[in-house]
Amino acid sequence: MHCPFCGAPQRFFVKAQDWNPDEFNVKLSEISKKNLEAALQLELDNASFYDCAKNKAQKAGDNYSLAKFKALMKVEREHASAISKFLKISSPELKKQACNADSKVNSKEGWEREGRAIKSYSKFRDEATEQRLKEFFGALVEIETDHLDLHSEYFK
């Protein structure tokens, strides 16, 4: 089971009574702040891309791709929201981004985007000195790896 909002595996779930709203209050090192800012840009770019891909799939009457890209867009937005909380900023709005009219081409680009995110988040996890950020970036690596599976149908 995964969180329907952010895609985190069940082991990251916390009972409501155990929730600590201070989990985002982390004293950030300069490198972690820089890495969070880069991660925020990655998530916003990917969310914008999936928003475009969702709209193209809808115009094409491709309901499967519409649902897939819509779900991915929402998850990437949730990641951007969490990162914004660490940075103590408002979550930025999505900017319009171009994509292809073909969902298969968009899935290939999505695959490449997720691969870049995994590589970046693995590096950010390893560079973090804050335990909470090591956990956070580690979770993002897992979640983005799951996203690869959603695109892999075209590459089998």
Number of helices: 4
Helix content: 55-70%
Largest sheet: none
The CATH level-2 architecture is identified as Up-down Bundle
CATH superfamily: Ferritin, core subunit, four-helix bundle
Can you write the helix and strand succession as a string? Answer: HHHH
Q: What CATH first level would be assigned?
A: Mainly Alpha
Query: Any low-confidence stretches, pLDDT <50, length ≥5?
Result: none
- Could you tell me the number of beta strands? 0
- Over all CA atoms, what is the radius of gyration? 16 Å
Strand content: under 5%
Specify the overall morphology: elongated
CATH topology: Ferritin
N/C terminus separation: 24 Å
Whole-number count of domains:
1
Describe this structure in words.
- It is a single chain.
- The chain is an all-alpha fold and 156 residues long.
- It has a single domain, classed as Ferritin (Up-down Bundle).
- Helix content is 65%, strand content 0%.
- Helix 1 packs antiparallel against helix 2.
- The mean pLDDT is 89.
Characteristics of this structure?
single chain, 4 helices, 156 residues, Ferritin, 0% strand, mainly alpha
Layout of helices and strands, plus pairs?
Elements: H1 30-60, H2 63-87, H3 103-127, H4 131-151
